[in-house]
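Run Putative HTH-type transcriptional regulator SCO4628 through structure prediction, thanks.
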Amino acid sequence: MSSKRGASDRIWADLREQIASGRLGPNAALPSTAELARHYGVAPETARLAVTRLKEEGLVSSRAGAGVYVRCRPPLRRLGIDRYDKAKWRNADLVAFAADRVASGRTWEPGDQTQTVRRVPAAHDVAAALGVAQGADVYERARLIREQDRPTHTLTSYYRPEHVEGTRLTDDSPGPAGPGGGFRVLYEQGLEPAWIEEDLQARMPTPEEVATLQLPPGEPVVELRRTTFAADDTAVEYAVGVHAASQFAWSYRFQVPDSGGRS
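Sure, done. The structure for Putative HTH-type transcriptional regulator SCO4628 is below.
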């Protein structure tokens, strides 16, 4: 067993290096299991173990009846602070996910985002973030974002009903909530976003997330929790995003804090 594992590790490392170096580029076909077995002088099962490991890492994926291919995974640049620049949503018409696409040199269509909107009882985390009683009614706006028909992430936002009732944020039509998206709606409601708190965590996906995001075996997700506040510290949105880890590279630019002052 140990010799089979050692031979499998060698094949895995060799193929992984070819993918990393670009010798096996995006959408390139891997040799078949039989071809790998002949090339490395091993049993087909040993070669299959190496390919399975690449699948678990999300580096390759199977195509029904057509073999195994290197995944096309150019990371989408997800802006950190800059994606919330007021110039994008207050003074122009750019929504956050579209700002990421523009920064990445990629195209987008309004229909890349679909959503369902409903009133639900506030769960513990939602209630704590929005400052309402647990079980109180809140609006839930659950979005699925795709790029070229491939899911990239979900984002579910929660709002107090008195903040968004009758606005575009309660409309479940495909696409952003009008020019400037949700932040523009809050601004028009007199609830201009002033500061944001975000937490990021990498974790393994739930079975439901695997199905929704069409994730390959073994691929993790990055969960984002965001609370948006108005200038008077009122929480105006709480959002939970789940991102396919292989689809994004986070990018931040900010001034270095100097809370100690100068002597």
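The chain is about 30% helix and 30% strand.
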